[in-house]
Amino acid sequence: RPRTTIHTLLSLYKAHTPITMITASDFPSAHVADAAGMDMILVGDSLAMVTLGMDDTSEIGLDEMIVACRAVGRGVQGAFVVGDLPMGSYEISPTQALTSSIRLIKAGRVHAVKLEGGAPMAPTIRAITDAGIPVLAHIGLTPQKQHALGGFRVQGKSTSSALALLRDALAVQEAGAFGVVLEAVPAPVAELVTRKLAIPTIGIGAGAGCSGQVIVQADMLGNYPPGRYLPKFVKRYGDVWSESLQAIEAYGKEVKEGLYPAKEHTYPMKREEMAEFRR
Ligand code: KIV
Ligand code: NA
């Protein structure tokens, strides 16, 4: 498939064709997403939880993100790959953010970076985009700031917070972001913000009025242990955990019963060589 570039994304946006984005965290999750034709792949720091089993995203560092970004990059032929700047790698100063972004591009081999925050991050977004690195902003529910937000809650529900969200969206656009993720925002608010902007909005829990959608791959595939809490906006398109469970249980049973490996899974040896070996 041809390589998706920033121009491809802009054409989709102008044509009002919804942009498709999904997360990936390693080689297999990347190549399947790329084969499925996703326009964009996000190496989201949600991999801290869904791939590494951490409690939240604050634990993951830039080095671990780089390992994941490289693995994802090896599996992608066509999609535009965005890497998340993890908590602690960009908040201190625009210089710190630019240094981390350059590492994600050079070592992580991604095409763009994503960071959380609106108006207060504008100078940072400006510094990164001025260096020629495309930035995807992320506003609304910003999981890295969950403790300041008081947990994972819908953002922009009141008139004043909807206005603040719009101001954040305009600020990141003005600072040079090529797009903005809107997470957990009432659908009518996200739709209005989308109409006020001249860059694509990528929604997650923000309704169909956005310019595109993003979803966490493990969530939509059902590739997580039973009982995991899922936000309301996740639609489960698969049941990968149960399929894996069935396959591994079947393997275990067949090994116990001596049914696996069967003859077709073994290597033969010439009779004469074997006779010699026996002596
Ligand atoms: O880390 C992530 O997966 C994300 C998406 C949910 C937007 O930031
Ligand atoms: Na993220």
How would you describe the overall organization of this protein?
Catalyzes the reversible reaction in which hydroxymethyl group from 5,10-methylenetetrahydrofolate is transferred onto alpha-ketoisovalerate to form ketopantoate. This protein is α/β, with parallel strands linked by helices. Helix content is 42%, strand content 14%. The protein has 2 domains: 6-238, Phosphoenolpyruvate-binding domains (TIM Barrel); 243-278, no CATH class. The chain is built from 12 helices and 8 strands. The protein has an 8-stranded parallel barrel with strand order 1-2-3-4-5-6-7-8, surrounded by 7 helices.
Ordered list of secondary-structure elements with their pairings:
Layout (H helix, E strand, L loop, with lengths): L5 H9 L4 E5 L3 H9 L4 E4 L3 H4 L11 H14 L4 E5 L9 H13 L5 E5 L5 H9 L4 E6 L5 H4 L9 H16 L4 E5 L3 H10 L4 E4 L7 E4 L1 H5 L18 H17 L14 H8 L1
Parallel strand pairs: 1-2, 1-8, 2-3, 3-4, 4-5, 5-6, 6-7, 7-8
The protein binds 3-methyl-2-oxobutanoic acid and sodium ion.
Sodium ion binds next to loops.
Family: Belongs to the PanB family.
Function: Catalyzes the reversible reaction in which hydroxymethyl group from 5,10-methylenetetrahydrofolate is transferred onto alpha-ketoisovalerate to form ketopantoate.
GO biological process, one term: pantothenate biosynthetic process
